[in-house]
């Protein structure tokens, strides 16, 4: 008899053994259907075939084989097992994270369609458009939607001399997102037969044209030197850190590395931390590598992701995959190089749901499996990576000059505490920032404003008694979104009506506190009514088209002020940005986290790097109340080495990474008393094995999310400890807790190497 050990999409550790019926042809990596429990049917992946019959229970047979050939490679299964072991996550959770939705269902996948909006034929002339605008003059929302559509699509460029302007296709979701109108408003425009909807299939594979290596630019002397140093270092080390200042031309070095790998018959994985970055990088890579390039990230349709997965298993896979975090889980056949751009970014760490893996660490392990090389690139290395480079574990190559000798931007620090005392601030803006933005606009240049909070205001407060509306399900205040006129919880997504009366004192003087990107945008429009303004945050980039439109419009100069959250800090290149304003640095410095200064430096240094690209030194206005902070000084002088020296000493003294491994253990339960008791009990169990390495339990800064009360234990493990044994103890302690009837509905999960 033959048996198959399966990975099933259930939150339980280990594999599940089933009988292979006689005559059924099955191979490792294929999908099969099985019965699980009394009535459930699951799709599983065959991880192992053997002839050892389990003892103590009746083995159920496989019901059906779903594939003619494996859809998961042996290297992927090995990587999944490593992720499961290292991050203490069930294999089923790893499988669910890795496979596109279309491969997790027995029904397969259907290509998706998206609804687009277009102008009806009878309104595709200037006379009809003027009539339409007059008709809609008394229907403000319909007028707003209609005029926004004309702008987005390009129909507003229609005139008698240009009867057929270049029309851009606009999705219904994007129009609703940009104009802020409801679906009902668009239906009214359809009833008026001014606009109509149509469906387009999305998720098509990239057909980027031919391979054009002749279009690759020659490297400058500093770039050439760095490139040669990388190749030399790769002869000795499997992982190389390229520490290059912003604007030094790291991407061009990556392109040369990719060409070399392709010429050697190798595949390349190029990872980026943020989906927004793929837009600009994709255009550069497509121009050179054509249809050798595949794009893979969560904003792409499921149909496309399934097709890319299948192509990677074919005899003609993409030579280059460009993608965000999840691309590391794709199948590869002859991987030779992994490039991890902006390697310091916390976006590489999966937070929820499990597995809580770090794509950088996972990529390095994947490269080891293929005997491939890994190139980490950044202007602001993570402390862990830089420490590995300084201690010889990684190779280190430095690129200290900007491309074509351009200077790093000048950073001027503005003490907003002093300006507020003297009542010289115009809302969140200092006089200097407003002056420099105005000068940029007058000179035909662009400006970027960085504020790392979305929404209109972080909270609403009763001016009389101090009451603040909070989420009913989470232990957080609600963020006010003016465009939607609602309060939103950024943890669970719940929305609430904006109160008009304080429930505590009956007062009606309810005021917003603080500034989000939406409020910054409103105030910028008031100060600079002539400016063309765009906002890039989670609220305005919910679709792939929205990302691309915002970035392409700013790159082409169709907008001249870009306001955004950390999305705008990540490696985007704009030719005409002369001024960058960091509206409030203090919100980054005051986080209750041992990485706060590291992350603040990285974010400010990265967003500063967006200033000054073409023949002119850029200017950064950094507004803060902590002018004398060491981190502010280090940002001004771009002094990463000083930051590293300060922080690495603290890390060693207080037993933080890179000198210790960290594991956070989270417990969740609807009843606060239960989770508190459970956390105390689990802490006692763990101290029997780990002693003083266990800290807590404590309440995290947000101690309730989605009606679940939370406690956290911290485990600090010194380097050299038997991590395999430590993980066994942790899983044993979890199992011991969950077998206690008092904790039957308790959730326990681990966050290994947390950020």
Write up what this structure looks like.
By secondary structure, this protein is of the alpha/beta class. The strands form seven sheets. The protein has a seven-stranded parallel beta sheet with strand order 11-12-10-13-14-9-15, with helices on both faces. A six-stranded parallel beta sheet has the order 16-26-25-17-24-23, with helices on both faces. A five-stranded antiparallel beta sheet has the order 2-1-4-3-5. Strand 20 and strand 21 form a beta hairpin. The radius of gyration is 28 Å and the shape is globular.
Tell me the layout of helices and strands.
Blueprint lengths: L1 E6 L8 E5 L10 E6 L3 E11 L13 E2 L8 H13 L4 H8 L2 H4 L8 E7 L6 H10 L4 H14 L16 E2 H8 L3 H9 L3 E7 L19 H14 L4 E6 L5 H14 L3 E5 L3 H15 L3 E4 L5 H12 L6 E4 L11 E7 L17 H12 L2 E6 L4 H8 L4 E5 L10 E6 H6 L9 H12 L3 E5 L8 E4 L16 E3 L4 E3 L6 E2 L13 E4 L3 H11 L5 E4 L7 H12 L5 E4 L12 E6 L3 H4 L6 H13 L10 E6 L5 H7 L3 H14 L6 E10 L2 H19 L3 E5 L5 E2 L2 E11 L4 H16 L8 E6 L3
Parallel strand pairs: 9-14, 9-15, 10-12, 10-13, 11-12, 13-14, 16-26, 17-24, 17-25, 23-24, 25-26
Antiparallel strand pairs: 1-2, 1-4, 3-4, 3-5, 6-7, 6-8, 18-22, 19-20, 20-21, 27-30, 27-31, 28-30, 29-30
Helix pairs in contact: 1-2, 1-12, 5-6, 5-7, 8-9, 10-17, 19-20, 22-23
């Amino acid at each position: 008899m033959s048996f198959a050990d399966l990975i099933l999409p259930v939150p339980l550790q280990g594999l599940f053994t089933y009988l292979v019926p006689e005559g059924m042809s099955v191979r490792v990596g294929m999908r099969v259907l099985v019965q699980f429990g009394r009535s459930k049917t699951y799709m599983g992946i065959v991880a192992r075939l053997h002839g050892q019959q389990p003892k103590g229970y009746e083995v159920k047979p496989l019901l059906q084989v779903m594939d003619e050939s494996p859809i998961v490679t042996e290297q992927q299964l090995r990587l999944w097992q490593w992720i499961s072991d290292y991050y203490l996550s069930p294999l089923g959770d790893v499988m669910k994270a890795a496979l596109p939705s279309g491969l997790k269902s027995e029904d397969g996948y259907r290509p998706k369609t998206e609804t687009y909006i277009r102008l009806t034929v009878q309104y595709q002339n200037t006379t009809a458009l003027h009539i339409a605008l007059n008709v809609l003059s008394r229907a403000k929302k319909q007028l707003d939607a209609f005029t926004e559509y004309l702008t987005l699509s390009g129909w507003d460029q229609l005139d008698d001399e240009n009867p057929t302007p270049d029309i851009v296709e606009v999705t219904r979701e994007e129009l609703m997102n940009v104009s802020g109108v409801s679906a009902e408003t668009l239906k009214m425009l359809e009833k008026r037969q001014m606009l109509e909807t149509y469906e387009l299939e999305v998720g098509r594979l990239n057909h980027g044209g031919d391979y054009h290596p002749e279009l690759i630019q020659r490297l400058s002397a500093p770039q050439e030197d760095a490139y040669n140093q990388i190749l030399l270092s790769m002869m000795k080390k499997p992982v190389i850190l390229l520490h290059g200042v912003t604007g030094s031309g790291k991407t061009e070095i990556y392109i040369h590395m990719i060409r070399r790998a392709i010429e050697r018959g190798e595949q390349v994985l190029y990872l980026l931390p943020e989906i927004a970055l793929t837009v600009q990088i994709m255009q550069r890579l497509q121009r050179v590598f054509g249809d050798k390039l595949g794009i893979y990230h969560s904003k792409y349709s499921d149909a496309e992701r399934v097709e890319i997965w299948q192509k990677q298993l074919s005899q003609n896979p993409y030579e280059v995959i460009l993608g965000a975090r999840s691309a590391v889980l794709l199948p590869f056949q002859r991987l030779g190089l992994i490039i991890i751009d902006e390697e310091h970014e916390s976006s590489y760490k999966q937070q929820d749901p499990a597995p809580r893996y770090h794509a950088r660490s996972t990529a390095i392990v994947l490269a080891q499996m293929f005997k491939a090389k890994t190139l980490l690139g950044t202007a602001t290395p993570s402390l862990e990576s830089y420490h590995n480079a300084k201690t010889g574990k990684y190779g280190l190559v430095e690129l200290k000059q900007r491309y074509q000798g351009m200077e790093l931007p000048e950073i001027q620090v503005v003490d907003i505490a002093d300006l507020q005392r003297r009542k010289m601030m115009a809302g969140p803006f200092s006089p200097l920032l407003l002056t420099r933005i105005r000068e940029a606009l007058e000179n035909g240049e662009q400006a970027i404003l960085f504020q790392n909070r979305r929404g209109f205001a972080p909270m609403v407060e009763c001016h009389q008694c101090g009451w603040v509306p909070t989420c009913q399900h989470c232990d957080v205040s609600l963020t006010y979104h003016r465009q939607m006129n609602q309060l939103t919880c950024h943890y669970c997504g719940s929305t609430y009506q904006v109160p008009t009366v304080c429930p505590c004192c009956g007062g009606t003087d309810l005021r917003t506190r603080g500034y989000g990107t939406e409020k910054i945008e409103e105030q910028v429009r008031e100060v600079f009514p002539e400016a063309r303004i765009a906002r890039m945050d989670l609220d305005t980039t919910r679709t792939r088209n929205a990302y691309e439109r915002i970035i392409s419009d700013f790159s082409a100069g169709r907008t001249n002020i870009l306001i955004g959250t950390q999305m705008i800090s990540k490696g985007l290149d704009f030719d005409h940005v002369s001024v960058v304003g960091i509206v409030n640095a203090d919100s980054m410095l005051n986080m209750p986290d041992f990485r706060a200064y590291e992350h603040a430096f990285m974010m400010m240094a990265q967003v500063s790097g967006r200033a000054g690209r073409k023949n002119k030194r850029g200017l950064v206005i950094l507004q803060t109340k902590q002018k004398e902070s060491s981190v502010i000084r280090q940002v001004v002088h771009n002094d990463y080495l000083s930051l590293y020296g300060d922080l690495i000493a603290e890390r060693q003294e207080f037993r933080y990474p890179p000198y210790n491994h960290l594991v956070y253990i989270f417990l969740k339960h609807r009843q606060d008393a239960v989770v508190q008791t459970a956390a105390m009990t689990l802490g006692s169990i763990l101290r029997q094995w780990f002693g003083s390495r266990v800290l807590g339990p404590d309440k995290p800064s947000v101690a309730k999310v989605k009606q679940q009360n939370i406690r956290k234990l911290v485990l600090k493990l010194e380097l050299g400890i038997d991590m395999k044994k430590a993980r066994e103890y942790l899983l044993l302690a979890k199992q011991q807790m969950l077998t206690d009837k008092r904790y039957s509905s308790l959730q326990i999960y681990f966050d290994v190497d947390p950020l």
